[in-house]
Amino acid sequence: MGLSRELKLAHIKKTRKEWLSYCAYIGAALFLAAVAAGQPAAAPLAGAAGIGAAYAYPSYRKKEVAGKAEKELPLALRSIATLLAAGMPFERAMKQCCQGTAIGDMLGQALHEAKLGKAMPEALHSLGEAVESRQLQKAMAQLSSAYSKRGSPMQLRKLGEEIAAVQKAAMGEYSGKLVVYSLVFIAISAIVPALFQAYVIVGSSFMAGMVSPEQAFWIAAAGFPAADAAALVLMRLKRPFFA
Predict the structure, then answer these.
(1) 196 membership: H or E segment, kind and range
(2) CA separation for the pair 50, 80 (Å, rounded)
(3) Is 40 helix (H, G, I), strand (E, B) or coil?
(4) Domains of the chain in sequence order
(5) What is the DSSP string of 97-161?
């Protein structure tokens, strides 16, 4: 997938050229920061890491946008299904669900486009295409069927329950993995630094030159905190975005 498409799905209002320039600025800033800190050898790595992180951010952001929409999707579908079954008009039922949630704001945008003259099925299709989420795309297709009287409110409710079941299973899987992630974080943040400290203290007494004082300082002051931060970021990335 191209960067322009990534930016669009992430709802970042930047062109490809503008974002690449931003990545270059981030890389240059981190490069100069490393040089100013007296670590010229680490400057290229810092600059490359900054460019890579900035370039990858739209991919993360688009998943976050999709997760926010998916979070309230089951409840929204079941609410609309209930209102439709009670005889409420489709547009009014959708409007009732457009309050205070990400999916509500998106449905509100679809209603606004429909008021401006776009056909409701087309507006719902555009909404599904604006976010990279198969769950949202299926929901918009089902809503379009309900609007065209080709689908029943019961089908909407069933789809909402299916999405809720999938999300529950994903959270259960993540909870099981979280135990392992927590053990890894404890090892990185507590056990490894303690072993390194013992290694430096004991090793320096009979093996000179193993680790210089400057190296020991930077490993403790920057290396271990960076490893802790990386572990936390990994745990967050593994977490379902709708959670």
Answers:
(1) helix 192-206
(2) 44
(3) helix
(4) 1-62 (no CATH), 70-167 (1.20.81)
(5) T-SSSHHHHHHHHHHHHHHTT--HHHHHHHHHHTS--HHHHHHHHHHHHHHTTSS-HHHHHHHHH
- Among residues 149, 172, 6, which one has the least CA distance to residue 90? 149
- Which tens digit of pLDDT belongs to each residue from 184-226? 899 988 898 888 888 877 766 665 556 777 777 878 888 888 8
Dihedral sign from CA coordinates of 99, 100, 102, 106:
positive
Question: What pLDDT score was predicted for residue 159?
Answer: 92
Residue-wise pLDDT for 11-38, tens only, equals 899 999 999 999 999 999 999 998 988 8
The radius of gyration of the chain's CA atoms, rounded to the nearest angstrom, is 25
Q: How far is CA 10 from the centre of its chain?
A: 10
Question: What's residue 210's pLDDT?
Answer: 67
Determine the Cα–Cα distance for residues 219 and 210; give it in Å rounded to an integer. Answer: 13
Query: Using CA atoms, how far apart are residues 53 and 59, in angstroms rounded to an integer?
Result: 10
Euclidean distance between CA atoms 115 and 108, whole angstroms: 11
pLDDT at res. 205: 64
Is the pLDDT score of 243 beyond 80? Answer: no
CB 147 within 8 A of CB 124: yes
pLDDT for residue 28: 94
